[in-house]
């Protein structure tokens, strides 16, 4: 039987049909994985930067509103002290001390 050239193929000679597809798809999956990983990192960086920027803007606007409020309080105290000085002859400090139980909220 072996001498007629028609020998039985072993398992190593047979080709598995889906093995070739899997081996060509694996590099594609690896490339897609790395692209998505890089995209995810960039997106996380953008979101982190955006979050920090928004927090900075928010704290800046809070500081501006607090400064504006303090400025208006200073203006009122200054006008009040000028009024007392002009009409009542009393000298007062332009900035009044806060009471002990002062609540700023």
Describe the structure.
By secondary structure, this protein is mainly alpha-helical. The protein has a domain of 66 residues. The protein is 69% helix and 0% strand. The protein is built from 1 helix and no strands. The chain is rod-shaped and about 125 Å long.
Question: Key features?
Answer:
105 residues, mainly alpha, 1 helix
**Taking Cα atoms only, what radius of gyration do you get, to the nearest Å?**
40 Å
| Largest sheet, strands/sense/barrel | none
**Termini separation:** 101 Å
Structural class: mainly alpha
Short note summarizing the structure:
The chain has one helix spanning 17-88.
List the helices and strands and how they pair.
Elements: H1 17-88
